[in-house]
Design goal:
Elements: H1 19-42, H2 51-65, H3 72-100, H4 110-114, E1 125-132, H5 139-155, H6 163-178, E2 185-192, E3 195-201, E4 206-208
Antiparallel strand pairs: 1-2, 2-3, 3-4
Helix pairs in contact: 1-2, 1-3
Amino acid sequence: MVAARLVSPPALTAVAPTETERDLDRLEGELKKLEAEYNMFFGGRLPRPPWETRARVDALVKQFDRIYIQNYADRFRFTTIRSRYAAFTKLWDRGQRAREEGRPGPFSSAKMATEKPRPASADVQILHVASFRDPLRETEKLRDLYDSVVEARRTLGQEGVPFHKFAELVKGQVDKLRTTGTEEVAFRVALKDGKVSFTARALKGAKGV
């Protein structure tokens, strides 16, 4: 009888992050630091606004704006970070002006000084668009649409949704809008006012999901 040899499974090799991923990690870390420092400033724990940290974040954002990011995931990630930064700067500047003019602002109460600031209105950033005639027969496009929604929610610190529930939602909207006479329904994933916007549009008008 021949004894069986136990072969150890090959070791998993970790994939090193790319230079772009490292730069995005740095940008994201600096933005989180800036948020914390502005919270401390409006809460009275810093004597002046964090201009140095803000200058570093601004320089990094402009650096990415000058280059073309080939990888879709990296490009999506930067777009999300840039949208958050733009929204927060509007809120911080509004709070600073109110403070200098001696009137109530977005950070005037003690409660708001300890909370994470809510982004002010920002331009709509379109992240993904897909159209369907029958979502259950177009699973690859449906999966891509789902991934874009989950990634957008994750970036904003929100939990994802189960794929089967998402698929039911999309199918339900397609079935509903097709009763108006349209043959195809377009879905759009975007960032608007610091939130994930997910809408469905038929040929006859638009309908929010």
